[in-house]
Design a protein that fits this description.
With 206 residues, this protein is α/β, with parallel strands linked by helices. It is built from six helices and six strands, in the order αβαβαβββαβαα. The strands form two sheets. A three-stranded parallel beta sheet has the order 1-3-5. A three-stranded parallel beta sheet has the order 2-4-6.
């Protein structure tokens, strides 16, 4: 047998239907597309799921869940995975070396799933509350030397400094009274008796 003699089984591959090759072929003229309409035109194609303008199925159904951004770099480790590993000190490099996780993972976290009966030390990895209790109950320990982010210091409140700033401000000068206000104040005030002029007459002095 030679490679150039190998052929598919008879009847397994059918020849492609050749359309538009005359009336006698049965697929001439319109080439199986029929008369008029969107599907009869060249370029008459809509995206997959298009329903003629009707609200498509993928938009009618409700959304559920989400796709985490760290799905390709984050790994979850079960207690049963730690049980069957050979190393006693387990970190990210050990998990990759024993083939428990992919080499593309950059972060891992131990979760409470399965049983752990041997003593292990989990180093520089995240551990859930239940998994921590199970590891410590088996005589193991968790060591985390990863740098922790510094807590944010609260900013000083501006309201507390406001009263002191107000006390330091100089007293505001008295407001100037407008002409209209002057006349209103003069009407309200009682009129004082006018002193008589030296001439004694009411008329204007000549």
């Amino acid at each position: 047998m030679f490679l150039n003699d190998i052929k598919p089984a008879p009847g397994s591959r059918k020849p492609r239907r050749r359309v538009g090759r005359g009336i006698g072929s049965g697929f001439g003229k319109t080439a199986g597309r029929g008369h008029k309409g969107q599907k009869a035109r060249s370029g008459g194609y809509h995206k997959v799921g298009f329903e003629g303008g009707q609200m498509p199925l993928q938009r009618r159904l409700p959304k559920r869940g989400f796709t985490p951004l760290t799905r390709d770099t984050f790994a979850e480790i079960r207690l049963s995975d730690l049980e069957r590993m050979k190393a006693d000190t387990i970190d990210l490099a050990t998990l990759k070396a024993e083939g428990v996780i992919s080499r593309l993972k950059t972060e891992a976290k131990v979760v409470l799933s399965g049983k752990l009966t041997r003593k292990v030390t989990v180093k520089d990895m995240g551990v859930t509350k239940g998994a921590r209790a199970a590891i410590e109950a088996a005589g193991g320990a968790i060591v985390d030397n990863r740098p922790k982010p510094e807590p944010k210091q609260p900013e000083p409140k501006a309201k507390a400094a406001a009263p002191a700033a107000e006390a330091e401000k100089p007293a505001k000068p008295a407001k100037k009274v407008a002409k209209g206000e002057k006349s209103a104040q003069a009407e309200k005030a009682p009129k004082a008796a006018k002193p008589e002029s030296q001439s004694g007459g009411k008329g204007k002095a000549k």
